[in-house]
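in:
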């Protein structure tokens, strides 16, 4: 039996995670009003996590901290962040959990999202107008 190199497994997981995030951005663009129409403000955070050492160093010098969730939304004055993970992966790494704690201690909300359906349900949970529907409950980090 051939051994799987960790890098190959990680890139497969990363592709799954990227696909979930791209699907969720599609939901935001197609089914959620823009801020001028009563919807939330949002942006991806560090959408390309695998950088050269030089680019990673510059990003760090410019204030980018490791472990931040993948997507930031401001809804009714409150920061809401989304961490995208493949369905079969357990808890986020400790560094990410520490950032989630920092965010929630400061009044933010963090959702760990494992599918587009969970993302839609998270939007409904916090009251974001979204014309897409489903019934699957998301995992949240709450204080």
């Amino acid at each position: 039996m051939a051994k799987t190199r960790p890098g190959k497994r990680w890139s497969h997981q990363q592709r799954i995670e990227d696909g979930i995030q791209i699907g969720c951005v599609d939901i935001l663009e197609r089914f959620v009003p823009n801020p001028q129409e009563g919807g939330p403000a949002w942006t991806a955070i560090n959408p390309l996590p695998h950088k050269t050492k030089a680019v990673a160093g510059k990003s760090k010098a410019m204030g980018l901290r490791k472990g931040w969730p993948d997507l930031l939304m401001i809804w009714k004055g409150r920061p809401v962040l989304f961490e995208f993970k493949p369905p079969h992966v357990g808890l986020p790494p400790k560094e990410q959990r520490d950032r989630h704690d920092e965010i929630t201690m400061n009044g933010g909300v963090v959702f760990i999202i494992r599918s587009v359906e969970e993302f839609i349900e998270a939007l409904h949970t916090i009251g974001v107008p979204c014309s897409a529907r489903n019934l699957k409950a998301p995992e949240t980090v709450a204080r």
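note: Residues 1-8 have pLDDT under 50 and may be disordered.
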